[in-house]
Amino acid sequence: MRGMAYFCFLSATIYALAGMAMGIFMAASHDHSLLTVHAHLNLVGWVSMAIYGLFYHGVPTVAATRLARTHVAVATTGLWIFIPGIALAVLDITEGPAILGSLLTILGMLLFTVRVATARLKPA
Ligand code: HEM
Ligand code: HEM
After folding, report:
1. Which of 4, 32, 66, 118 is the most buried (most CB within 10 A)?
2. Nearest to residue 76, comparing CAs of 1, 4, 2?
3. In this structure, are residues 118 and 69 in contact, taking their beta carbons and an 8 Å threshold?
4. pLDDT the model gives residue 123
5. Cα gap 124→117, rounded to integer Å
6. In whole angstroms, what is the distance from residue 19 CA to residue 2 CA?
7. Which of 12, 73, 19, 4 is nearest to 47 (CA)?
8. What is the pLDDT confidence band of residue 121, given thresholds at 50, 70 and 90?
9. 122 found inside a domain
10. How many distinct structural domains can be found in the chain?
11. Which atom of ligand 2 lies at the shortest distance from residue 98's CA?
12. What is the pLDDT of residues 97-109, one digit of tens each?
């Protein structure tokens, strides 16, 4: 078991690779119509997931809890629905997945907020 921080960091780097590849594709094709997909893949995927990883790395006792596992599971599921959902919404196909994905994404942040608020952190 490599732990929650490893999972968060590894997923974050994969989202960064996908987001940057998409950025290069947008730049090369001069087609920026899916800019919002690129922005949120990088910011909710790479940046937010890396911050979760940093927190769980810094507070390993909290990383092993069920609340932490639930938080990361909800955040990951949310992202995997949210990102393609934004593309479907921008392309005017359907808004359903973007709505569901965004609600799961904010639920994930709420669970993280509870995890942070109830953690016993040593004073620096
Ligand atoms: C290889 C790396 C990257 C490339 C080639 C790239 C390329 C692009 C391109 C072509 C746009 C569209 C610009 C426009 O239409 O105004 C864009 C927008 C954006 N990118 Fe990237 N990007 C890269 C990495 C990143 C990363 C790592 C992040 C965040 C951590 C990021 C965040 C954003 C944001 C927030 C926007 C929207 C900016 C706005 O609202 O105008 N990008 N990127
Ligand atoms: C539940 C989560 C979120 C929802 C529903 C959401 C929704 C949106 C919407 C509707 C836009 C306007 C898009 C447009 O004008 O076409 C937007 C833009 C933007 N959001 Fe988010 N957002 C979320 C999370 C975040 C987070 C966590 C970040 C940063 C860490 C972020 C950064 C940005 C940026 C930089 C833009 C401007 C670039 C763009 O148009 O894509 N968002 N967001």
Report:
1. 4
2. 4
3. no
4. 73
5. 17
6. 25
7. 12
8. confident
9. no
10. 1
11. 5
12. 999 999 999 999 9
